[in-house]
Amino acid sequence: MTRQQFGFLAGFLLVAVWALGGAGIAAAATLAGLVGWVLVRVLDGAVTGPGFADRVAPDRRR
């Protein structure tokens, strides 16, 4: 599955959930999906605590 196909499928499913369950359910499904995505990235080693902290911390070199 290409990235474009995955993006289309994700968008389609989000709108389908929104239409069937309402905006609150769609927001909860989106949040759950994002949490799952971050969890998988952490388990794969693509995101680490120190690496994430470096990205969100203000640059103190100024």
UniProtKB/TrEMBL annotation:
<protein>
    <submittedName>
        <fullName>Uncharacterized protein</fullName>
    </submittedName>
</protein>
